[in-house]
């Protein structure tokens, strides 16, 4: 249709307006990038002044302008800056750029604000691959070390995305799959660090992320790799912009969905692997940088375009790493900061961001029923057979655990020991083994019961005390006591562990409450708290007496080593109180596992009951930590296996969960004490190595 004279001015006006908006967008994009560059420059200047040699701003200015006084004996300002401070700052900038862009790619490809190298276990996979190569003594050229990390990170990302049901999976599934995979990889890494302690000594501190550099060689070698990948990511910007509209819309507009996701994931994993090779696994920069970029995007709409957002997240990532490292050195001092990994600081910040994102989740409808509500119904006879059989098997496992170890004994030796007629060697062996077996039995039963209570009240079949931050809080409390109070008694450790668990539970519950309790939000907040507590625990572990570090590391991996009867008493007392309470709540637990509406309709005070159940679960988890250290997956696997055996009724699930938890932990402890005797593998690592594949199976089975 021809344009009339009256319409012509309006068309010209529209074109002029569009050009004006485009020009404003370019200026605002350039302005925000220039502002980020200025912030990074100022932070780098502050960062360079931090160090052990006492060089300040005046010295740096004098060295730069050539007005410095003649150098006295020792290295000059220029030597110090070029030899140590610039390499550290350069490594921080490169790591921040790599992780920031990797996080932006992961979040854009998954259309999920919680996707990152950490929540997708890419960092853990890279660290595990490097640890395997180092432990086995495989000679890898320097240029190929990044390839090893890349293979490990790519395999972990593929596993997580496959388990979660693809890149477009729900937030909770994606984070749960990534966290479970990260736990399994962490267990494997810890096992290798314990078994090959001499070969992997240098990886312990590096494993928490450190910017300490011998010189600038590694940073110079990594910079072209990171630069080329960032350029490739920017070239992918148009596809990413269209992909944000949805797969169907992007496909109609000509975007090849599969190849775009494949290329983006490869680029993100390459960036993560390069960062891990350069400075170790520095956590959560890839989560925080894109989040900050999106917040700035509310003020500067140009950041909504990936061509601007990707370089912005690169700069924000560098700012986060440099600021965290400089702040850590400013607070604790340059001498102390040498031994403190920067990854601890970024992980704590990332945990806060993860919790904030979880709290911002919108709940459109009540959560669905757990798998407990859909379990098959079995008869009472089957439940009785399972319970009786479980008691027999647990008793047999306890006896076998007494007989096995560095040296094997016979049943007759047990009889002689019980009657006081055994030789000193036999008495010593059983006197040391019996408390360990009892601690494993009691703690396993407590964790099994705690897991059943958490899964029912949180109405999430993939929840457990560890993933709700309860175990992490108890572990942090116990580590604080052990490191700060020399010769701390069992009573003190147990008391502070219980307080830590209760404080952790209170924080998780309070932060997850938002006009009601949403179970997905509860799990995500709990995972965020778990990451934060783990980082703080690592901080205390590194600052502990070096002679105590191996024992603490073993305890944090879950071990019965050195346990005495006094360690068993708190767990036993907690079980004596909690078991009757749990059986009183069996009807309420059945209703809570269904949905939010049914308990209200039948007159059950939903929130008070849920609060009481979770407090009981927190206490059980706390006392188990004080007895056997931090053990994961028992509280996840035991209730699932119990429901598969006896159905969904909690009057049957609770006793079977306790039996499976007790038997499983006793068996894991016996295997750990026997498989490489006289050396030992902590029971918690054995449980994780077995429980993680089961968790993977649960995720794969529930993907539909």
Mean pLDDT, all residues:
77
Q: Which CATH architecture of the largest domain would you pick?
A: Orthogonal Bundle
Spell out the CATH superfamily of the largest domain: ABC transporter involved in vitamin B12 uptake, BtuC
Query: Helical amount among residues, as a percent range?
Result: over 70%
Question: What proportion strand?
Answer: under 5%
Which word captures the global form? globular
Gyration radius, to the nearest Å? 28 Å
Number of DSSP strand runs: 0
Biggest sheet descriptor? none
What's this entry about, in short?
The chain is mainly α and 704 residues long. The protein contains 29 helices and no strands.
Map the helices and strands.
Blueprint: H1 7-48, H2 57-65, H3 77-110, H4 122-135, H5 145-164, H6 171-195, H7 203-206, H8 217-235, H9 237-243, H10 247-252, H11 257-279, H12 285-297, H13 306-332, H14 334-337, H15 342-359, H16 380-403, H17 411-418, H18 424-458, H19 470-484, H20 490-512, H21 519-543, H22 549-556, H23 565-584, H24 586-592, H25 597-601, H26 606-628, H27 634-646, H28 650-674, H29 683-701
